[in-house]
Each structure stands twice: as structure tokens, then as C-alpha cells.
Amino acid sequence: MKFIPSIFILASILSPCFFIAQDIPTPAPKQSEKICVHGATIHIGNGQVIENGVLVLENGKFTQVSPANALDIKSLNCKLIDASGQHIYPALIGLNTYLGLSEIEAVRATNDGAEQGSQNANVRTIVSYNTDSRVTPTVRSNGVLYAQIVPGGGLVSGTTSIVQLDAWNWEDAAILTEEGVVLNWPSLQRKMGWWADAKGYEPNKEYDQQRQDIIDYFLEAKSYSGSSVEKKNLRFESLQEVVKGKRKLYINVQHIKEILHAIDFAEQMGLQITLIGAADAYMIADILAQKKISVILGRTHELPNYADEDIYQPYKTPAILQKAGVLYAISNEGFWQVRNLAFQAGQAVPYGLTKEQALMSITLHPAKILGLDHRIGTIELGKDASFILSTGDVLDMRTSQITRAFIEGRSINLGNKQTDLYHKFMEKYGLKVK
Length: 434
Description:
The chain is an alpha/beta fold.
């Protein structure tokens, strides 16, 4: 009977795992019946709006997108969903996120977003993506149904991946596995410690050398691609599509001089690039448009880069890029923070964007940057039936209330740990659930 204590010990170890799994919604099954959603205002995602529209979903695709008076709903022979008074939007797309790679920031063992070393082009985020994260359902409940998973750390961080946020495992979640490679461009200013003066920064004396190191590294990768080797170098192997201009290089860069240096580097190497962060991009919007360089902006709820800069500049930058014709997207980098993506875009509306343009910055534009606009980003015939329903304006935190969400025609569960606790304690104190 000596095995009995061992059973109790094993049970005590595993029991928390069972409790953890309980508040993670089960992925929705594949769409099995034709669905018709009618009565809502449909925001196509390309600037067009259909009042009192009709959506028909079949086999995970949009097969009808039209005004209600353009067809007889009863003749469609499908499951009807009355969405009168609501708004329909394309699935929101979160770029530059650590979703599924981090769980609790203060607990190192739950963070898997970066590898040791400086040159890690061979690191694949997709195999580390955790579909059982408690964070993902909280993000999904605010309309973000797709995400770009990005590695961090080092000089070359690794490869990005694109996932849909309702899956059993990373194989089910994956839309694109090695979508791009991330390069962290050095800064001309180095952040000092807590002992620093009010400025908090000092000149980076190693900047020129760090910049040259990047050039040398990519020249080596180019040389490697044109030679036959007996022993493969995995880091260079993972850069082959990048140096050939067939795979995108995402460059984390912020300040104007660094941005110009990064652009010059990319042109010398013949690389296809997208800038991440690029807070000073508005200063050279015409150059970015001319060179067709796309930009993934960070939060609008952010202070400007410089003390003498317009305090509202982060809110104004999207409109400046929009006017110049730059392909840009708004992101809310991090992981749990991604739930507020729509509100980051909404904040740019009073500063020059229309509501539909702000919506495009988190739907169609991200899809174009990722090369997925043929599948997602707008509500159009033949595209994946991925969209959300809201009782209010999805860009406005005061009225936004997501009621339903669909990924490829599958009606997904919008519950999460936070909503479970809300319902629990509302019931405990006999209060009415809103």
C-alpha cells in the first residue's frame, strides 16, 4: 500500500492544473450550418458602411454581404441571427504582440518571449505559442481575433507568426508560421539607470559600431546564401528568404536618424521592411510613402519622444501617415494590453482620422502588411467569415460591448476568467448582471 501516498502527492500537484483549465473556453467546432446575420450596421473595413445589412456565412466564408432590402432573408434557408441595432466589424488584428508567450510578467518562468544571445534568426515563435493562456480569452472578448506573435531580445530576435485566437494547439492556431524576422535597431541614446538626471539618457558611443555589425551580419548572410556549404548555419539559413527580399524584415526603431539609417541599410541590402514603433515616422511621411515602406505604430496613449514636442503628437501621427498615403497600422504592443487595441485606434479619431479610417488601421491595414488581405481584414465575398458584433461603437470604450464573435464562421466563446469572476460576485450579492 506504499503507492497510496504517492497517488495523493501526484493528485495534489496536478489538481491546480485542472482548476486552471476550467476557465479557458473550449475552441468552437467547425461551422456546420449556413448562418444569416441581419439587421445590423455593417462596417466593411475598407471605408464602406451598409446600414441594415445582411451577412451570410457558409463553410467559414462570406457568401453574401448586402443591404437587407436587396434579398429575401426567408428564402436563404439558414439559421437566422437578428442583430438589429448592433454593429458588425471585421475581426481586429493585433500586431507586434507577445500573446501566448507571456503569462505573468513578474514570474520569469511564465515568460518565453526571448532567447539568450544576440543573433537568433532561427528562433520560431509559433512553437512556443501557448493556446491555453488565460490572457488570450480576455483579449478575444474585446474583438481581437488574430494576432502577430513577435519575439524579443537580442539583435535579431527570431521569426514572427500569425495566429487565430481560438484553437486547441499551435498547429490549429497557425495562419502563417515564419511570416517575418525581427531586427532591433540600436539607439543613438542609451537609457541610464534610476540614478540618472532628469533626462535619463546619455549618448550611445557604440552606435556606429553596432550599426556596422548589423551590416556585416547581413552581408555574411547574403554571402552564405550564394555559396554551397557542407555544414548548415541555422541562423543564416533562417535569413535566406529575408536577404533575397522574399520575406519581410521587421525593424524595431523609434527616432528619426535611426529610421533613416535603417531605411538606408534596407535599400543597400535589397530588403523588404516594415518599421515597428517608428514614433518619428510622421517627420518623413512623404519619404515612407514614396519608398512604399509600411509602419506598425505603437500606442497612441503614449507620451511623445521629446520634451519640446507636441503633447498630442502620438494621437496625430496616424492621420499624418494616412494623408501622406503611407500603409500603417496601430498596435498595442505587449500581451494582456492588446485587449485595448480598438481604443488606441479610436483615440486617433479626434485628431484627424475618420472612424472608418481608424477601423482600417486595426483591420485592413494590418492584413495588408501581413499579406493576408485576400483572407481577412474586411467583410467581403469569399473572405474568411471572421467578424464581431457590438452593441456600441467598437472604438469607444464607453459604449463598446462585444456580444458575439466569429472566426472562419465558428461562433466562439467570449467568456474568460474576468467575466466569470464578474458573474460570480454579481450573483453572490444579488446584483443584476449587465
